[in-house]
Structure formats: structure tokens, C-alpha cells
């Protein structure tokens, strides 16, 4: 990036720091932004600052919202009896795209990862436990990713919930629909075998 003026280099570096953005894409975005009319660029910058100021965690489920309680928690069409525990707000959006799940969510904002210095106290587990003491819940669905950290977090929370006598379930993982067995890795194949269902 040598040869670029310092402000353009800084802008490119900011874009490159975003997840999934490489150096070439970052540079393209920076140049695109410079080609924008000033009013449009100002509107873009203002929307970033506005989102940073206005968005916070829902006091019930910890999902992002600009209100005290998010629209999902406030909806009379959702049941309080089932809570789906996810890693971050993007996971809520994935479930909402299905338009099938009618329960509530709880967003952890991370996973337990001792190697990265992230313990149970760094994510929203305490808030989940407080919520379960004030709400009558039949089932908690652990919907963390099937990674080492996701599995460890799901196991940790399920152990904490055992004394509360709430049913704890885990999302089934395995062969995707349309997938072929010969291309499945060992972990996926093993999970598919473990999660088999009676027909």
C-alpha cells in the first residue's frame, strides 16, 4: 500500500480489519468510498456512528436492539417456554430466516475459550441463569456451533441447568441435505451417526 496517501491507507487498513475482507477488497472499498459524492459518504459515516450509539443489548435476551426490549422478546406471537441459546446476533438472523421457530432466544456474545482467555464470566451465561429463575421455561436448545468451543460452552451450560430440571437439547449435526457420504469428513459422519433418528 506504499504510494497511497496516508488518509487513504488508513481507510484501507480499517476496511481490511473487518472479518472476511482481504487487502484487495479493502482497497477497492476505500477507492469506491472516495468516488462517492460527499453527501453520500457523510450519510454512510453517520449511519455507522448512529448504529454504534443506538444499538445495545436487549435487557431480556441480549440480542441487538435499539429499544429496551427487542421485537422478538416483545412479540405476543412468540412462546416463552422455549429458549434457543446462540453464540451471537447473526445466529438469531439465521433462525429467523427459516420462519419456523416461534420460541425466544438468548445471545451469549461469545463462547468459552480458555486458550483465548474467554471464561464463562466473559459471556452472557449469568444473564441466562437469571432469566430462567424468573421465567417458566420447558426447554433450552443449545444452538452453538459444532466447534470445540461451541461444544464446551453447550456442555458447561447444560451442567448448570441440570438442577433447574429444564430439558436441555442440542441441535442435531450431520450430513447436509443433498450431501454425499463419500465427501463427509469423519467428525460430520460421526455426528450424523450419533444423531440418527428412528424412522
UniProtKB/TrEMBL annotation:
GO biological process annotation, one example: DNA recombination
UniProt keyword Lipid biosynthesis present: no
Domain of life (superkingdom): Bacteria
PROSITE patterns, A to Z: TOPRIM
Zn finger residue spans: C4-type: 58-73
SMART domains associated with the record: TOPRIM (SM00493)
Keyword tags: DNA damage, DNA recombination, DNA repair, Metal-binding, Zinc, Zinc-finger
InterPro entries xref list: DNA_Rcmb_RecR, Rcmb_RecR, Rcmb_RecR_Znf, TOPRIM_dom, TOPRIM_RecR
Pfam families for the chain: RecR_C, RecR_HhH, RecR_ZnF, Toprim_4
Keyword Metal-binding: yes
Domain Toprim: 81-176
A GO MF label: zinc ion binding
Known role: May play a role in DNA repair. It seems to be involved in an RecBC-independent recombinational process of DNA repair. It may act with RecF and RecO.
UniProt family annotation: Belongs to the RecR family.
UniProt xrefs under PANTHER family: RECOMBINATION PROTEIN RECR
UniProt-recorded name of the protein: Recombination protein RecR
Gene source species: Fumia xinanensis
Species lineage: Bacteria, Bacillati, Bacillota, Clostridia, Eubacteriales
